[in-house]
Amino acid sequence: xxxxxxxxxxxxxxxxxxxxxxxxxxxxxxxxxxxxxxxxxxxxxxxxxxxxxxxxxxxxxxxxxxxxxxxxxxxxxxxxxxxxxxxxxxxxxxxxxxxxxxxxxxxxxxxxxxxxxxxxxxxxxxxxxxxxxxxxxxxxxxxxxxxxxxxxxxxxxxxxxxxxxxxxxxxxxxxxxxxxxxxxxxxxxxxxxxxxxxxxxxxxxxxxxxxxxxxxxxxxxxxxxxxxxxxxxxxxxxxxxxxxxxxxxxxxxxxxxxxxxxxxxxxxxxxxxxxxxxxxxxxxxxxxxxxxxxxxxxxxxxxxxxxxxxxxxxxxxxxxxxxxxxxxxxxxxxxxxxxxxxxxxxxxxxxxxxxxxxxxxxxxxxxxxxxxxxxxxxxxxxxxxxxxxxxxxxxxxxxxxxxxxxxxxxxxxxxxxxxxxxxxxxxxxxxxxxxxxxxxxxxxxxxxxxxxxxxxxxxxxxxxxxxxxxxxxxxxxxxxxxxxxxxxxxxxxxxxxxxxxxxxxxxxxxxxxxxxxxxxxxxxxxxxxxxxxxxxxxxxxxxxxxxxxxxxxxxxxxxxxxxxxxxxxxxxxxxxxxxxxxxxxxxxxxxxxxxxxxxxxxxxxxxxxxxxxxxxxxxxxxxxxxxxxxxxxxxxxxxxxxxxxxxxxxxxxxxxxxxxxxxxxxxxxxxxxxxxxxxxxxxxxxxxxxxxxxxxxxxxxxxxxxxxxxxxxxxxxxxxxxxxxxxxxxxxxxxxxxxxxxxxxx
Amino acid sequence: xxxxxxxxxxxxxxxxxxxxxxxxxxxxxxxxxxxxxxxxxxxxxxxxxxxxxxxxxxxxxxxxxxxxxxxxxxxxxxxxxxxxxxxxxxxxxxxxxxxxxxxxxxxxxxxxxxxxxxxxxxxxxxxxxxxxxxxxxxxxxxxxxxxxxxxxxxxxxxxxxxxxxxxxxxxxxxxxxxxxxxxxxxxxxxx
Lengths: 746, 191
Prior knowledge:
The complex is a heterodimer of chains A (about 750) and B (about 190). With about 750 residues, chain A is α+β, with helices and mostly antiparallel strands. Among the domains of chain A are: about 1-30 and about 140-325, Biosynthetic peptidoglycan transglycosylase-like (Penicillin binding protein transpeptidase fold, Orthogonal Bundle); about 40-130, Penicillin-binding protein 1b domain (Penicillin-binding protein 1b fold, 2-Layer Sandwich), CATH 3.30.2060; about 690-740, no CATH class. Chain A is about 35% helix and about 20% strand. In chain A, strands 3-4-5-8-9 form a 5-stranded mixed beta sheet, with helices on one face. A 5-stranded antiparallel beta sheet of chain A has the order 16-15-28-27-26, sandwiched between helices. In chain A, helix 1 packs across helix 6 (about 215-230) and helix 9 (about 275-285) packs across helix 10. Chain A is elongated, with a radius of gyration of 32 Å. Chain B is mostly helical. Chain B has a domain at about 1-20 and about 80-190: Alpha Horseshoe (Serine Threonine Protein Phosphatase 5, Tetratricopeptide repeat). Chain B has 7 helices and 1 strand, in the order H-E-H-H-H-H-H-H. The longest helix of chain B is centred in the first third of the chain and has 18 residues, at about 1-20. The two termini of chain B are about 30 Å apart. At the A-B interface, strand 25, helix 22, strand 26, helix 23 and strand 29 of A face strand 1, helix 2, helix 3 and helix 5 of B. Strand 29 of chain A pairs antiparallel with strand 1 of chain B, so a sheet runs across the interface.
């Protein structure tokens, strides 16, 4: 018997040692987790920098500057357009930016009279970047961790009052409570009561399964005692606050009060009111059973019980308790999973981190992540979506509409702003990345680019046939594409077919150059998923996310240079040591000359074609290029286009893929134009490639002509493909005179 | 060693051009927001008459605007014969990068040049400088691409063109692309 006991004791000791190792390693991993700090791009100030006075002030405030005399580091003074800014200095991955005092004037949305008046002189300074969020890159999801010192004191007090009154006195388990619970369970003949301490509940959350076996109970008790031996009560409590299970969203578990506060109320834990804290504490007993969204009555009862406990424990006054019991649950309609201000953008940052950086690097804590987010552009993009969407297609439709907007810097591929839905603060389905929708006519520039890369066969002037036809497949199926307006126009010049987005010429040209060639062009420009080889792809039956559309349009905007989209400039560890850097890359994927011709037709789209209503909102001086896209029954409304500085892709549609009355021009274009109208920028004016020459031509006669002739159009041609014939015209004298003087007075 | 000597010509030429980067401000006009009050956006027009024959896929010519009634053109597509120059701010960053490059800090130099690129994204010089930095760090593939990008923005500036084509010829030769190098050299010589 003694021997038997001894063996048992040795086994138990061994088991305890094993559990001890499990407990300490796991607990350590959870305890001191420091989030990675995510920064916006730093604002660079220099003579001529493009920014409005309002945007500069917003940016200063976002970076934590105080308005004042502008003398102390971290403060600024504004007097109309005149600013005096005292920077704090910042340690950037590529070097330190010293503290300085600078003065400047904003005039015509540009920085003027820039000078450093204190500190090291420099023609350019960087403000400290705004911190836009905190993430835990090693985790697949956003976490919202809280520190004990930061949570409202009433939360842990209530928690203890309800779940474990003697928390600060017991050693991990409370035999008395267990005895009481056992008695109750025996009486009932089943498990009705738990006598778990907070420590035991934490152990259960961290290490164990949910089933209630005796062996598990034993392990739980040993581990709880071990945990208490190793750690302070406050450490255990803090970890509990961050680990407790408080709900489920699909496959995703909601752990911790910080995240639960966002998930149920869309608020930070520190901003919660008594009745909200009571609800969360009440849910500890059974997050699913007391789910306030699904079982509001049950949840209210439980919450009010907790409020009474708070009252009894003297945590709140009776009047306040009574008032709290009378309040509705106050749960937000839609769950949010993040407390980051720009959830859609941060989502993309997270994906780029896992794409571009090694996982083991990301496991180190307290990383600093320098992103490309431009707060001023993001502000304008969010405004464009939230302001325009309610006015599209009537109030009833507008309610069901969603929208996304992706904005990138044209030549660097940096993602400057991202709006993932009509509620930009909502962290959930990120349409900008995950909504794969048919792109409709956005595909047409790629069809014509494929054609124009064969200058011996196609020029912008080449007549293409706008006439219906039927395609019969081997299996007997027939396909008969049509134009949107049902009209057929006979022969139209290629540039016009693209700028007016006629369907029939696009399909004809696409079939002539080959569906596989168009598909190769798309792949070269950055589509990384398989592309349908059916002819219907020529009318955009290909599905893409808005971010992919932005990627492929980048090549069109930059004369054929593909620039991988990036959100991250640099990542450093907590000591400022840079992790591997992800640099600017360019790769020529198409002949610049052919792209230049497509850019011409895309500018024509804005001036004469399907995009011209943009100029109802925008200044005529801002030259732009773009393309509309619409799919069957207005299910998707797209607009992709660019200025000299920015590329933006807007999408409007319904999540259920339902029909709308919108076209690309009446849905996405207003959102796009509204955005563009708020940002000071350069017009689009591409440099003419070497091999391209502009000629005045008569497109109907397929011949060179004189500038002053009626129907004369200045078209770019790849050298050798220009027409050889010339037609002259009499032209009116007035028109001729205007032609002679046109260049002089511009 | 041989590669280094060959490169010297290209680098020197590119540096020379930088000194004379007073090229005029080509490119698009800067359009401030404050200067021109934008008109209130026109309420989007929507047509509900969806009674036409079934269509496989639509495009979006507004049905109410057949081509005969299109508004007259008010402006033509824009283009520039010249690329853009470097602003003093961008130039100061390029100078810093040159200093770092001399001291062998290529990644520091590239970081400065990328800052310059963000300020002057349509200036051929910035891309030629990036190309040089990549040559020094022996990433010739990237160097070639940045040279091509620079050339696409050089416009009709023959000095920039010549520098770019010479640089390209050197890089291609170092990469073993003799035909490509000869072609680039011929382009430089023809200017």
